[in-house]
C-alpha cells in the first residue's frame, strides 16, 4: 500500500535490534549485548507481598484511572530521597511519574525541540536517546566523552557557540561506556548550563548502582533551574513495572504535563501503588547494596579477564558502578565483524556504531556484565577471544 | 526562567481539566463530568487472583524488561477475538500493545502527521484526541456528527477534496455524544477510505459496551488495508492497568514499532501478563454483559429523567451503549454558565466546548452515566434542573 508517513520517520536511526533479537533468542549464546539488570536480583518475593497488600487494601482504586502527575505518596518518596541523599531541595511538585525513564526522552524532546534545534549529547551516547530524539529531527551536537566526563574544551565550545535546547548526559556509570563524570566535570557542566542558559538533562538510571555506595553530586546541584534529572526504578527495583520519574523546575513540569497527558493520560497506577508500598516497607539501601555488590564482582571479573586474555589488545573502561564496560578494539578489527564472529562462537557483544549520531564506534564494543553469572562471564570471554582471533 | 519550548506546545488546546479537578475532589458534588467506568464493576477479586498466579508462576520474568511489540499470547487473544466476534482476519502480527488507547492517538499522529497535514475528525470529537493530535500541528477537518454517523455529504466532500492523512472516528457509542454509526454509515465511511486512500482510524473503546450485546460491524471491514482499530481494556477490565492495543496493517505496524520503542521501550509487562491470565480464566463475555446491563439501566434512568424533568428543554441523544449522553441546551443558555451554576448546586457536567476544534459546543453538555449509582443520577438531575433554572 502507498501509505504516506510523516517526514520525521525517515530520521529514525537504522536499528540494530533485529540482529540482536535473533541472537538473544538462542539459549546457547552467552550474551553481553543487552542491557538487562539481573533477573535473579529482582526481589520478586517482596514485590509480590507489596502487590498483595495493595490489591487487598485498595484494589479498586489501584485499578481505576488516576491523575497525569503520578501517585503523590510515590512522588513524595522520590523528592525526599533527593533531599536526603543528594541535598537537593526537591518537592513532589517537581516530580512526575513516567513509564520508565525512556518516556522522559520522548516527552522532553517533544516539549523542547523544533526541527533543526540543537541537542548536545555525549559521544558515545545512549542508543535509546538517539532513537527518541531523532524523531524530532534535531541537529545533534555530539561531544566526545573521556573517562572523566565530556571533553571539557569541546563541551564549553558547544555550549557557548551552538544553541542547544538541552545537553543530554549520563554522569554516573554511563551507558554505553561505564564512565563517570569527575567532580570537576560535574561542576563545569552545571555552571556552563546556567551561564549559557542551556538545560542540562541528566539521566541518572544508574546512580544508585555505585560499587562504593557513595552518592555522586548531581550536575543539577550546579545547574540549578537549568537542571533536569531523569530517574528510574528499572535498575533498582524492577523494569517490568515500567516506572521512572522526572525531576524538573515547575515551569518545565507544566509543559511536561501537557505532553504526558496527551501521550497516555497517566502511568500505570497499580505499578505506582505497588512500588510505593514496596519502597516504604523494604530497606531499599540494603537491596541496592546487594545488587551493586554482585555487579561489582561481575565487573571486576570481566575487566580482569579482558586484561588477562586480550593482554592489551582491548583497551577498556574501569566503571565504578552501573552495568557496562566499553572496550576499544585494535586497528584493523571492525566491531561488526567481531559481533558476527562472536555469534559463531556463541557469544554476543554490542558493536559501538549505534551509540554515535555521526559515523563512529566501528572500533569499539559495549559489554554488559549485569545479566550474566560469573561462569558465563568466564566462558564468554574465552569465546570472545576465539572470535577476536578469527577477525585478525 | 526564560525557557524556550517547542512551537508545538503553543498548539495545545486550553485545558478544562484544572476546573474539573477542583470539582472532582469535592465528595459532596455529584459528578457526571468525568469519563470513568464504574469502580464497583471492576473485578478486583478476579484480577487479584490472576496477579497472584502470575507473580507466583513467573514473577521474575513478568518484572523484567520485555519486547516492544507486547506479550504474544495477549496479542493472540486479541486477534482471535477479532476473528471470532467480528469476522476480521486479524493475526497477532497486526496487533501491538500500548499503555491504554490514548497512546495510539499520540503514536499514530507521530508516524503520520507533518505540521499542516489534514486530519479528519467528528464534531463533536473526543477531547483526548484533539489534545494528542494538536501537538503535531495538523489542519483539522471536522465533520459534523449526526445521530447515525458523520454527515455523509460533508464526510464525502472532506475525504475527496481535502488531503487528510487519516480520519479519526468513534463509530460505537461515541465520546462525547453517545451516538453510533448506522450500518450504512460504516459502509460509506469504509468504502470512501479505500477509494480515497485515506486511513480510517476507528477508536473502539466502547464497542463491547453495547446494551444489546450485538457486535457492530467495524468500519475496517470495508476499509480493509486503510482501516486501523484502536482497542482498550480500560472499560471492560480495568483502566489502572493502562493496557490497550492497536490493530493495523503490517506496513503501519513497522513504523508504529519505531515510534513505540522510542516513546517508552514497551508497555507494562506485569499488567500484560495479569490481563492475559485474567482473560483466559474468566468469562469475559459474562463480565461485559454485567457491566453493560448496569450502564444500560443508568443510561435509561438518566435519559428518562432528562425528558421528564426538563420537558423538552434539553434535546438529548439516545445511546445504545457506552458511557455518555449528549444534551443540547435551549437558546440563551451557555454551557459554561450551566457548569458553574451546577457546581453551586453540587452537580458537575462537562460543557461541550472542549470537544470542538473550532468554536462550538457552547450550547451542549456531556453527561457521564457509568460512574454514578441510580440514587446519584436521580438526585443529580434534580440539582441540574435547579442550576438550569438559575441560568434562564
Model description:
2 copies of one chain form a homodimer. Chain A has 392 residues and is α/β, with parallel strands linked by helices. Chain A is built from 13 helices and 14 strands. The first copy, chain A, has an 8-stranded mixed sheet, with helices on both faces. In chain A, a hairpin with a 2-residue loop joins strand 4 and strand 5. In chain A, helix 4 crosses helix 9 and helix 12 crosses helix 13. Chain A is globular. Chain A starts with 16 loop residues before the first helix and ends with a helix. Chains A and B meet through helix 2, helix 4, helix 5, helix 9 and helix 10 of A and helix 2, helix 4, helix 5, helix 9 and helix 10 of B.
Output the number of helix runs of chain A.
Answer: 13
- Give the helices and strands of chain A as they follow along the chain: HEHHEHEHEEHEHEHEEHHHEEHEEEH
The order of strands across the largest sheet of chain A is 2-9-8-7-6-3-4-5
Share in helix of chain A? 40-55%
**% residues in beta strands of chain A:** 15-25%
- Amino- and carboxy-terminal Cα gap of chain A: 46 Å
Descriptive key words:
homodimer, 392 residues, alpha/beta, eight-stranded mixed sheet, four-stranded antiparallel sheet, 44% helix, 15% strand, globular
SSE arrangement:
The structure is a homodimer of 392-residue chains.
Chain A: H1 17-24, E1 30-31, H2 44-62, H3 72-86, E2 95-98, H4 102-112, E3 118-123, H5 127-134, E4 139-146, E5 149-150, H6 152-161, E6 164-169, H7 183-196, E7 199-203, H8 220-223, E8 227-232, E9 244-247, H9 250-264, H10 269-281, H11 284-310, E10 315-316, E11 324-328, H12 335-344, E12 347-348, E13 350-351, E14 364-368, H13 374-391
Parallel strand pairs in A: 1-12, 3-4, 3-6, 6-7, 7-8
Antiparallel strand pairs in A: 2-9, 4-5, 8-9, 10-11, 11-14, 13-14
Helix pairs in contact in A: 2-10, 4-5, 4-9, 6-7, 11-13, 12-13
Amino acid at each position: 500500500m502507498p501509505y504516506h508517513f510523516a517526514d520525521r520517520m525517515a530520521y529514525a536511526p537504522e536499528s540494530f535490534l533485529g540482529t540482536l533479537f535473533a541472537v538473544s533468542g538462542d539459549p546457547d549464546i552467552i550474551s553481553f549485548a543487552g542491557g538487562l539488570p539481573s533477573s535473579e536480583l529482582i526481589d520478586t518475593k517482596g514485590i509480590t507481598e507489596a502487590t498483595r497488600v495493595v490489591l487487598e487494601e485498595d484494589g479498586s482504586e489501584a485499578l481505576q484511572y488516576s491523575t497525569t502527575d503520578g501517585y503523590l505518596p510515590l512522588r513524595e518518596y522520590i523528592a525526599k530521597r533527593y533531599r536526603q541523599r543528594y541535598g537537593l531541595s526537591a518537592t513532589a511538585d517537581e516530580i512526575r511519574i513516567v513509564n520508565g525513564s525512556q518516556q522522559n526522552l520522548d516527552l522532553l524532546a517533544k516539549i523542547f525541540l523544533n526541527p533543526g534545534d540543537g541537542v548536545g549529547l555525549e559521544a558515545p551516547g545512549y542508543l535509546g536517546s538517539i532513537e527518541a530524539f531523532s524523531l524530532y529531527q534535531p541537529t545533534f551536537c555530539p561531544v566526545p566523552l573521556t573517562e572523566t566526563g565530556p571533553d571539557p574544551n569541546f563541551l564549553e565550545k558547544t555550549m557557548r557557540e551552538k544553541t542547544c535546547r538541552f545537553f543530554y548526559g549520563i554522569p554516573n556509570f554511563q551507558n554505553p561506556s561505564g564512565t563517570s563524570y569527575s567532580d570537576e566535570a560535574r561542576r563545569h557542566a552545571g555552571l556552563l548550563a546556567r551561564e549559557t542558559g542551556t538545560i542540562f538533562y541528566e539521566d541518572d538510571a544508574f546512580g544508585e548502582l555505585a560499587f562504593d555506595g557513595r552518592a555522586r553530586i548531581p550536575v543539577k546541584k550546579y545547574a540549578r533551574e537549568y537542571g533536569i534529572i531523569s530517574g528510574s526504578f528499572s535498575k533498582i527495583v524492577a523494569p517490568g513495572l515500567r516506572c521512572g520519574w522526572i525531576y524538573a523546575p515547575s515551569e518545565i513540569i507544566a509543559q511536561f504535563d501537557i505532553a504526558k497527558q496527551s501521550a497516555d493520560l497517566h502511568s500505570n497506577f497499580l505499578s505506582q501503588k505497588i512500588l510505593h508500598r514496596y519502597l516504604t516497607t523494604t530497606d531499599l539501601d540494603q537491596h541496592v547494596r546487594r545488587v551493586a555488590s554482585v555487579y561489582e564482582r561481575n565487573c571486576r571479573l570481566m575487566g580482569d579477564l579482558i586484561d588477562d586474555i586480550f593482554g592489551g589488545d582491548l583497551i577498556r573502561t574501569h566503571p565504578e558502578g552501573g552495568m557496562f564496560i566499553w572496550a576499544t578494539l585494535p586497528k584493523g578489527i571492525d566491531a561488526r565483524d567481531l559481533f558476527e564472529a562472536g555469534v559463531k562462537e556463541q557469544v554476543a557483544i554490542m558493536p559501538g556504531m549505534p551509540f554515535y549520531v555521526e559515523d563512529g564506534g566501528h572500533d569499539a564494543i559495549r559489554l554488559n556484565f549485569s545479566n550474566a553469572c560469573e561462569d558465563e562471564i568466564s566462558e564468554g570471554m574465552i569465546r570472545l577471544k576465539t572470535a577476536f582471533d578469527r577477525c585478525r
